[in-house]
Structures
1.
Amino acid sequence: MQPLIDHARSFGRLTAARSGEFARLAGGQSPQALFITCSDSRVIPALITGARPGELFELRTAGNIVPPYTPGRPTSEAATVEYAVDVLGVRDIVVCGHSHCGAVGALVRGEDLTPVPAVRDWLAHTVPDPRTMSTPNTRPGTPDSPGTPDSSAPSAGDGDDPAVAQAVRRHVLAQLRTLRTYPCVARRAADGELRLRGWYYEVHTGAVLAHRPDTDDFAAL
């Protein structure tokens, strides 16, 4: 912890050269996107996207789960989505899953989560179970050569359990479907003012794959 404390202590001095940029943030925020991802410490949205302060509105949950929209039962997640869409006016929402995901992996492996009942009950929001949903085509590409459909392999040199990698991608698509049931999202999307994107981040390589709705495959950005 001490290195983190030391950095926080010196942060003001380190950013002195960018004082104008930080001063402008006091006037408000106008982020480009809402970025929904896992609480996992290995997934850093600003590092992945290169976002500057004020450019991403973030929602981090265990397993990047978006709970169902339930009128009359407010949740922090629903409030964050609604604020991003209706107040900040973001034009994009990204749901980003990742390799080596402990939450989805626990479901795939059928682990006993009785010792962590809050985790067990939270993962119930993944319904339908990512193990039983249809599998999107997934094959990596390169920036110059987009990937092509291939349901037989999650990624070259994935380094993760292929079953988990596939389940994470199915899980991302399930969260996008849940988001579309939120009234604010449904309204803005129907008006062509909001785009939903599904991403998959490889922790061990830094590669980012994006879901392509036209072909239902995940390929390099």
2.
Amino acid sequence: MRLPIRVLFPVLLAAGPLLTGCGGPATVAVPDRPAGTKAPVTTTPSATGAPDAPVAAVSLGGPGTACALPVSFSLAKAWEPKAIRNPEDPEFAALTRQGPATVRCEVDAKPAGHLGFLRVWTAEKGSAPSPARAALEGFVKAEKKASGVSYRETTAGALPAVEATYTVRGALLDEEKEERAFAVATPEGVVVVHLGGLDTEEHRAMLPAYELARTTLKAS
């Protein structure tokens, strides 16, 4: 069940929306989710109890889409993508840079009833034997208060990929929450796709959309 608008509004900037509006930094609001309110789940449980894959609504990353990226992938229904304005502007580096990566696009889950974002970052390939892993490790190391980091080899579509799962202490709720990201190397550099969320419950509710992006990804 979706959270009502009066509950969603105070957390419009949960997990830190970036420079997708008028080009300036946003102000983070204090969340107001009532105690006991569950994160909405927009997927339908299957006979085995696992959530079904979400409905793919549009493709992101290719020509004519909201964000021009080195990769493209399917977005879950109702998730809203926006390109980051002026991501190279040093004035906003604290918001648009994390380790070696620069954020290029963020996909807002609020229209789908969730509190979080799927963000796409890019980094130079560098000279490391595994550019994707090197970029992902630098990205995670730059995350403040990250702990319990675990890396694994995986795939993103048909491309080899590296995925990291970890926890961070959330600034809004002051509690540990799960996050994850995967990275792939392309001819145009490394792409990092990151999923956060207001809290662990929201993060887990959004995992089907993250997996849809990972399994449908292809080089643009």
3.
Amino acid sequence: MRAFRRERGMFVAELDADERAAVAAVVADVAQLLGAGRLEDRGGADRPGDDDAPQTLPPTESLAGLSLRIDDIRAPDDAAVRRLLPDASRNEPTVSAEFRRLTEDDLRQVKTARLTALWDALTTGPADGWPRGALVVHPDAGADLAATITDLRLVLADRLGLDDDEASEALYAELERDLPDDDAQRDSAGDVRRYLGSIYAALSWLQESLIDVLLDELDRPR
């Protein structure tokens, strides 16, 4: 994985095939948690094909449907989804319920559209002229991508039990330790944790590089 950089007017990172597949799997899982179904099961009309593979990750525009519900929406039972769709107020349940009723449908739509754009970019690859593993992002889409990576990290953090800085530091220390040479000393749950933890760490690093490029973009002369 290579960090984001500005190249030819775009933000560009590089992920190898395994890294793209791992991140795309998490993207699809989070989209499913938000009610989008499995992204890989969409019909051909809903997904770019080889002939029109996206040249860049585009900005998402006009995503909010401005739909208004009459009935209340119950807060999500899944703690990971609740991180994505948090209560507006911890102390005022009536305010939280009203805010959720007015905003949750549109918020799910926005988040799902951003996840879908990222999944398409990861699974279709870049247009001709870019390195094979390039993830090419239009500058106007940079903030959307940063927000989407935050959503991925929030879900992974919940699954990994990362509730505070101490837990995060413990995870990084765990990832730095060498694996036992003897397979008998390893357990499947530990392997899954290391796998998810590695994705979490990689996404954190990638997001940091994206934010650096976004900040540099603000300083560029217009």
